[in-house]
From TrEMBL:
InterPro entries: HTH_trans_reg/aminotransferase (IPR051446), PyrdxlP-dep_Trfase (IPR015424), PyrdxlP-dep_Trfase_major (IPR015421). The lineage of its organism: Bacteria, Bacillati, Actinomycetota, Actinomycetes, Micrococcales. This is Aminotransferase class I/classII domain-containing protein.
Length: 120
């Protein structure tokens, strides 16, 4: 599917998730995070999770008592702080998402550029 940009694509994806159940979608976002993405999902159940050590804090996310439908991340170049989520935190998020059935949405807005060492 081709959209007019990140906001349109994200909006379509999240509307699809919202239709999955009666309570609506619960979507975790980075805090601070990309303001435009937050505006798109704010009416759909956005829940801010603090940024720590270069990206979303996995411990804060995993301590939530309510399940999430999706998590929006910018792990390779966190916006607006510019950090990189450590590999150990990425692996922990992947394992958690697999165990809980949560979708991870990566906004890799800057993938053409390298910020720091080459990826593993």
């Amino acid at each position: 599917m081709v959209t007019a940009g990140t906001s349109d694509g994200l909006g379509l994806l999240l509307q699809g998730l919202r239709a999955q159940g009666p309570r609506g979608a619960r979507i975790a976002t980075e805090n601070p995070g990309y303001p435009t993405a937050r505006r798109v999902i704010s009416g759909l159940g956005a829940l801010p999770i603090q940024v720590k050590d270069g990206g979303m804090d996995p411990d804060s996310l995993m301590q939530s008592h309510e399940p999430f439908d999706a998590v929006l991340l910018t792990p390779s170049h966190q916006y607006p702080l510019g950090g990189r989520l450590p590999v150990s935190a990425r692996l922990a998020l992947l394992a958690w998402a697999n165990d809980t059935g949560t979708f991870l949405i990566e906004d890799d807005y800057d993938s053409e550029f390298r910020h720091g060492p080459l990826p593993c």
